[in-house]
Request: fold
Amino acid sequence: MLITGAELPDGRIRDVRTDEGRIAEIAESLHSLPNEETVDADGLTLLPGAIDVHVHFRQPGHGHKETWATGSRSAAAGGVTTVVDQPNTSPPTVDGEAFDEKSEFAANSAVNFGLNGGVNDDWDPDSLLSRPVFALGEVFLVDSTGDMGIDEARFEGALAAAAEAEIPVTVHAEDADLFDESVREADAGGTGEDANADLWSQYRTATAEIEAVEAACEAARGAGVDIHVAHTSTPEAAEHADAAGMSTEVTPHHLLLSRDDLDELGTFGRMNPPIRSEARREELYERVADGTVDLIATDHAPHTREEKEAGLWDAPSGVPGVETMLPLLLQEVRDGGLTLERVRDLIAANPAERFSLDSKGRVAEGYDADLTLVDLDDSDPVQADALHTKCDWTPFEGREAVFPELTVVDGTVVYDGRAGDRFTAGLGENVRQP
Ligand SMILES: NC(=O)N[C@@H](CC(=O)O)C(=O)O
Ligand SMILES: [Zn+2]
Ligand SMILES: [Zn+2]
Reply:
């Protein structure tokens, strides 16, 4: 494939040739070969495909919320070319057999993927870690969707197993002992969009995250493991993890939404860890812009409308986001909050480096041809109706965003927005091939 006249993240205008799944040549001017597919990228920007190291694609077990087909199409349409799935499915991905079962579902993926292995009281590290596991995680230090919370002793066992297997560990760190139970006892909370969802933020306190991150970093240091702290929602937790030499991710919802938005969102804004105050959100944004935070990942956690419309204390936690991450970040670039090169690092170069995907994350010769083409002059409002996730809602309804024109995985167009949302599925591969 020959992509002509594309602007690269550093501002250079170049022709880019892909061949056998790789970026073969980048030059000021390349001539097309006989029968070569060409893409006119005049006026468009070519980015490395985003690597979202935190999605919940729900199969096996919860295909009514999302499937690998719908989730991966949503990823492709959002410029995401690699996703990493989490273990809180049914069965949970905690042994070799469950890993193999999930691999069969993932074979439907339109984009490349990694499959994490999980830890619970029934996990079988021997069979699990004999499989091509992307990372151990997210390791839940508290119950979230799937009730996979574990205690300290089991966490230490998991750290030791990961150190021996030489695989990364990602951690969901909140301390349930520091939740404010009085909030829960005092108020029924209401239902759906009418719920007082701010109570969720009051209940799952910032301190519960900050102290759990501190404890997790200390345990990790003791075990000689560098953990990756998932979805930090507070600047304090992100700063602590960074100072302890660990890596962190921030989600688009913690970056762009605050408790001020919960009036409108109700239970649709309930997730773990919860949305924080506007003051904390602004500080977290600064930590994302200044490099304290390593990467953005979505924690794409779809639940159906009907499920989210329950009472505040019963509704499931989590929001979708894989399709809107890059589009919303590109709007931040348009608005001057982040540079395009910083966005490239947050969504592609840094996740690739952190998780040893050595041939991904950059538009450079020899790298994998996982790419997305965007028009930074053209934004549209986010509309749930136009997204491809199976759950037909988004917490970002109405926000301006820059949706990709075209997404390429291993040199093949998997999403063409210019040809009326055309997808090619089933081409994605496990990025940790044995
Ligand atoms: N973040 C959430 O609120 N929910 C996630 C689980 C998780 O990441 O904790 C889910 O799987 O629904
Ligand atoms: Zn989590
Ligand atoms: Zn998660």
